[in-house]
Design brief:
The complex is a heterodimer of chains A (about 230) and B (about 325). Helix content of chain A is about 35%, strand content about 25%. Chain A is of the alpha/beta class and about 230 residues long. In chain A, strand 4 and strand 5 form a beta hairpin. In chain A, helix 3 runs parallel beside helix 5 and helix 4 packs across helix 5. The longest helix of chain A has 16 residues. The radius of gyration of chain A is 17 Å and the shape is globular. The C terminus of chain A is likely disordered. In chain B, helix 2 packs across helix 9 and helix 3 packs across helix 9. The N terminus of chain B is likely disordered. Helix content of chain B is about 65%, strand content about 5%. Chain B is of the alpha+beta class and about 325 residues long. Chain B folds into two domains: about 180 residues, no CATH class; about 100 residues, Alpha-Beta Plaits (2-Layer Sandwich). Classes of the chains: A alpha/beta (about 230), B alpha+beta (about 325). At the A-B interface, helix 2, helix 3 and helix 4 of A face helix 8 of B.
Chain lengths: ~230, ~325
């Protein structure tokens, strides 16, 4: 689903953010990216939704070469990739419903279908009762669930998350992690960048460790009893 | 049996393929328009500020235009006085008068030729010296010259054209004495050129200032909503989809601003400026200032709409970095 071949990226000439990265993520996989700050986690994610183009190497998403896409093709790529961030990036003066519906409006869906599908995903996230609240009034955990609803409402092939639990307490972290796992079970390929060791250890998933722009360690973790408890 | 078959697909596929909101250009335009109107409703303050800025900016420009247009028409009227006179020291007989008239009329730039005989000349002299008629006692028509008064077309009233015309005129045999108030013509035309230059300069600065102020105001309003632009591009909106509602919003703001400014200008005109001309004696033919001609008003409305549209377009370019 995701393939990187010898990808290098430099914001400035001397300092490279990513150095000769080769990585394959299969369809339906769940992968954690970890490493210290500045290791290149965010840069790698940005490559995957077309916000950056590498200086060298190829990035393939679902068989399509992102590095060769024209600016007008990038939006079409993003329709099959959901993204969530540590700071949620929600529209603060809009309601929960409007924040989620925007994904479907962009696709040109009709009003009735948007309503049904949006309420359905809000129900899955457990925030359907707050659909008419301004997102500013929500707690951090609730805001992240709105952001997840926005990313998942379109049933994306890939879900990318950049420190999704960075601002959340433990209870909320677990809820968010469960949502990722549920999405993964439904077939979405999930890539989560985090340096939260606890989150990684309790989920028993594949782990890719970055440092100074290079992959320093890859651990294949098999699923154990913990996951079946879900 | 039948029940089974009907229920089965519903449980497997809870959502059918979504219907699209409006097909074709019309449906899309409707969607964008409703989005733009929603945006205006949700950002009332920002929109009021933008429309107010456009209104004031265009009001200043249109006031300037109003003054300039009236000065121009006053100048046109004054230039009616640019006139060439040919003097004769004798009364011209019928056929001679006709032949001179024909020769003069054949020259380019002539709009009207009239003959002033001695009686007429005396009459004018008298009316000029009204109240002091005693001065004219003993003055008989025979002492006054007869003349042809030649009015020139608008395009031939500048200094060079008048001088050239006089040269050609003097080549007609029998014509020796020609007067055209050369000093006055020269001064009047240099004044006119100065006014036009000043007007163009001031108008140019004004227009640049207006474009600068309006585009910066729009830039700020779009800057305040850059997170919206970011989210839209994140969920896969095409550039056109992100831009269209903002462009429509700019168009609406610009049109509203220009309509308001023309309305305000008309109000100001009716209240104060309508009669201002009478004491400024700008315009000798009408009692007061004229309002802007229709084509200027149409131009202002168009300029407002364009200002809003282009202001949004250039600002969006800066903030959409897909």
């Amino acid at each position: 689903m995701i393939q990187l071949h010898n990808v290098s990226l430099a914001y400035q000439q001397d300092a490279s953010a990513l150095n000769n990265i080769t990585l394959k993520i299969a369809k339906g996989e769940f992968v954690f990216l970890t490493g210290p700050s500045g290791a290149g986690k965010t840069s790698l994610l940005r490559l995957l939704y077309g916000a950056l183009t590498p200086n060298r190497g190829q990035v393939l998403i679902d068989g399509q070469n992102v590095t060769r896409m024209t600016p007008s093709q990038i939006p079409l790529l993003r329709r099959s990739v959901g993204v969530v961030f540590q700071d949620f990036k929600l529209l603060q003066n809009r309601t929960v419903f409007e924040n989620v519906a925007i994904t479907l409006e962009v696709l040109g869906w009709g009003r009735a279908d948007i309503g049904k599908k949006t309420m359905h995903i809000l129900k899955q996230m457990g925030i359907e009762s707050k659909y008419n609240l301004i997102t500013q009034r929500l707690s951090g955990g609730e805001q992240q669930r709105v952001a997840l609803a926005r990313a998942l409402v379109n049933d994306p092939k890939i879900l990318l998350a950049d420190e999704p639990t960075g601002n959340l307490d433990d209870a909320n972290k677990n809820q968010i992690l469960n949502i990722f796992k549920e999405a993964n079970i439904r077939g979405t390929t999930v890539v989560v960048a985090t340096h939260d060791r606890r989150l990684i250890e309790q989920s028993h998933k594949r782990l890719v460790t970055l440092n100074k722009g290079e992959i320093v360690e890859q651990v294949e973790k098999t699923t154990t009893g913990d996951d079946q408890a879900l | 049996m039948n029940k089974w078959k009907k229920q089965q697909p519903a449980t497997i596929k809870p959502y059918k393929r979504p219907t699209l909101s409006g097909d074709g250009f019309g449906g899309r335009a409707g969607f964008f328009l409703s989005r733009a109107l929603t945006n205006i409703r949700q950002n009332v303050f920002v929109n009021v500020v933008t429309i107010g800025t456009i209104t004031l900016a265009l009001l200043i420009v249109s006031l300037f235009m109003l003054i300039f247009v009236n000065l121009e028409s006053a100048a046109e009227n004054w230039s009616e006085r640019v006139q060439v006179t040919v003097y004769f020291d004798r009364e011209l007989a019928g056929p001679e008068q006709v032949s001179f008239r024909e020769k003069i009329s054949a020259l380019s730039g002539v709009s009207r030729v009239s003959y002033v005989n001695r009686e007429e000349a005396l009459k004018r002299f008298k009316s000029r010296l009204k109240g002091q008629e005693t001065l004219l006692e003993g003055v008989r028509p025979e002492v006054l010259p007869t003349s042809f008064e030649i009015a020139l077309k608008r395009t031939h009233r500048d200094t060079v054209s008048v001088e050239n015309f006089v040269k050609v005129l003097k080549r007609i045999p029998g014509i020796t004495e020609v007067q055209y108030g050369e000093e006055w013509v020269r001064r009047f035309n240099s004044f006119l050129n100065f006014m036009r230059l000043l007007g163009a300069l001031l108008g140019g600065f004004l227009v640049i200032a207006v474009i600068f102020i309006v585009s910066n105001t729009i830039k700020l309003t779009i800057y305040s909503r850059r997170d919206e632009l970011e989210v839209m591009s994140l969920v896969g909106a095409t550039r056109f989809f992100i831009k269209a509602p903002f462009l429509l919003e700019g168009l609406i703001q610009g049109t509203a601003g220009s309509v308001l400014s023309v309305t305000l200008l008309f109000g100001l005109y009716e209240a104060f400026l309508h009669n201002a001309g009478s004491f400024l004696t700008f315009n000798p033919t009408t009692s007061g200032l004229n309002f802007l001609p229709v084509e200027y008003i149409a131009g202002l409305l168009l300029a407002g709409a364009l200002l809003g549209f282009i202001g949004s377009l250039t600002s969006l370019k800066r903030f959409i970095t897909v």
